[in-house]
Structures are given as structure tokens and as C-alpha cells.
Amino acid sequence: MKTEEVGNALLETWSVDEVAEAFDRNEIVLIDVRTPQEYMFEHIEGALLMPMAFFKPEKLPGQGEKRIVFHCGSGVRSERVARAAIASGMARVAHMEGGFGGWKGSHKPYIGTNMATGAPTPIS
Q: What is the CATH number of the domain that holds 38?
């Protein structure tokens, strides 16, 4: 995990493996900030959707029990959202390095779309 101090807050950049392990242990809430179309085509099963275009940091749950980790397609949008969350007053925010592309590149399971039927399909 990489960390960066942003004012009085801490911005964490987690690797795909760190996110996958914490997600499997139910220690984090994973929030996908991609568009609804991107999410519908393929997404990490169990990740919540809060598109960057509609991001409202005041609507986020607290981080008392579970940490919040943002992700997008490549890590660029999730870092922007994480910085916006810090600007809104959150003191410790994380995002996934490499985004969904890194997740797929690491051969982690996700939900894709069967192009023949349009149905959601588990990919491992």
C-alpha cells in the first residue's frame, strides 16, 4: 500500500491483491466509480456503484466498521473521487491502483456479459 498525505488526511493506494484479500475477508466496501454502462458490462461481484459523475461524498457510509476503497477502469477516476472525498472532510481514503483493468489483468473473478445472450456471467 502506498500512502500520501493530503493536508490533514491520508490517501491510500491499494494494490489489486490487497483489495482482493480485504474484500474476501469482508473488511472493505468496494465502490465502483465507473459509468452505469461500464458496470453493467462487467464488474467486480459485490462492488457498489457510485459513478464519478454523480459522486456525493456526504452520502458515503462511515468507515467505522469497514474501510471504503474506490475503483474505476484504470485508477485515474478513483483517485479523483478519493481526493474529492478527502476535500469533503474524510480523513482516510483509499483507491485501487490499476482499477478494473488491473483486476482483470491479475485474473481475479468478476461478472462479465455473455455476448450471445446478454446475460451476466461469472468470469474467473
A: 3.40.250.10
| Distance in angstroms (rounded) separating the CA atoms of residues 54 and 50 | 7
- Cell 462487467 belongs to 42
The beta-strand segments (E) located in the chain are 2-6, 9-14, 28-32, 48-49, 67-71, 92-96, 110-113, 120-123
Residue keyed to cell 493530503: 6
Q: Higher-confidence residue: 20 or 90?
A: 20
Q: Among 61, 67, 93, 64, which residue's Cα sits nearest to residue 80?
A: 93
Q: What integer pLDDT is reported at residue 42 of this predicted model?
A: 96
Domain count, the chain: 1
